[in-house]
Specification:
single chain; 105 residues; mainly alpha; two-stranded antiparallel ribbon; 52% helix
């Protein structure tokens, strides 16, 4: 059996503690680290994919620009990327796949 790192601990695949539990394998396969992103990191990633600056994201989410930067740094580390362009690309791919999945899952 293989184990994945989720929330800084080892968990069994598709166990209730695993972030990918209940998600399709196709969605999680976009990038191995995608499932480890927190909801806040996902919100920031989606706004960055729309082309917003850190300041604009901060205003939209009512958080500080420093917090936006922190979420981006954590997302970059989890995904193994180093640019906003790469983050936007992964976000758009992930959201496109999610939109193609049947709603009854």
């Amino acid at each position: 059996m293989t184990y994945t790192i989720a929330a800084d601990r080892y968990t069994r695949p598709n166990s209730p503690a695993t972030p990918t539990a209940g998600r399709s394998r196709r969605t999680a396969a976009v990038h191995p680290g995608w499932a480890s992103l927190t909801p806040a990191e996902l919100r920031v990633a989606r706004l960055v994919a729309e082309g917003l600056t850190n300041r604009a994201v901060a205003q939209r989410l009512c958080i500080s620009p420093h917090t936006v930067d922190s979420h981006l740094r954590h997302a970059f580390a989890k995904l193994g990327i180093s640019s906003r362009v790469a983050l936007a690309r992964l976000t758009l791919i992930h959201d496109h796949i999610r939109a193609d999945e049947p709603a009854d899952r």
